[in-house]
Amino acid sequence: MRIASWNVNSLNVRLPHLTQWLQSFAPDVVGLQETKLEDPRFPDDALAALGYRSVFCGQKTYNGVAILARERAIDQVQYGIPGFEDEQKRAIAATVGDVRIVNLYVVNGQDVGTEKYGYKLRWLEAVRAWLADELVRHPRMVVLGDFNIAPDARDVHDPTVWNDGHILTSAAEREALQRLLALGLHDAFRLHREDAGIFSWWDYRQAAFRRNLGLRIDLTLVSDALRAHAVEADIDREPRTWDRPSDHAPAWVRLSA
DNA sequence: ATGGTGGGTAGCCCA
Nearest nucleotide (C1') to the CA of residue A41? Predict the structure, then answer.
């Protein structure tokens, strides 16, 4: 089964793209970020018509996350990070089949040293504590989402710009990601790929996509128990070529039975 | 160093 993550940058605008992509790619599970929709406006009927059930947790204008599953029940839904007060709708978890799915829209952080950057690091620490507990009860886990962190120099188009001191690549952010991986999680893409220059996000400005000036910040992490089952992982650049696209492309992992 | 583009929303914030 294929499990994907996609920051759609407004589901209201991108529902036609999501529809097209669900029909062509046919993922089994999808985590969406930046839906930017309050729950009553979530298009669950339109997705159901395509065969996808959905659970979601959104707000007006900003943030918003959802989990979709094709012809499968979605159980044990967790909205937000347990015990962490947060007005921003950035986390949702649920069980599909025998796999626990955790979908994260990690804080962007604006700039190193800002108040939002502090919130990003606190938020990531809350996620770490949550996942440590979650993994005990759900060893078969996929943690996916827009991490707003490029793991290493291979994941940025220009390492002389994107390094310590820069948001999305600062040492503290990368260390926070490493602390998540240290729980027993693995970047599925890097289980099979060592190449640099494969990205999931390209700025809308300066023709960044055409010039492949991107970052790999959308990740699918698999737990120790699923590591051997994660037989393939990639990023589907195609929706980024469509008219009026999201600035992110879907990242996905395929789990063998 | 700045500002470039896009989304949501109603004069800006956020990415």
Answer: B8
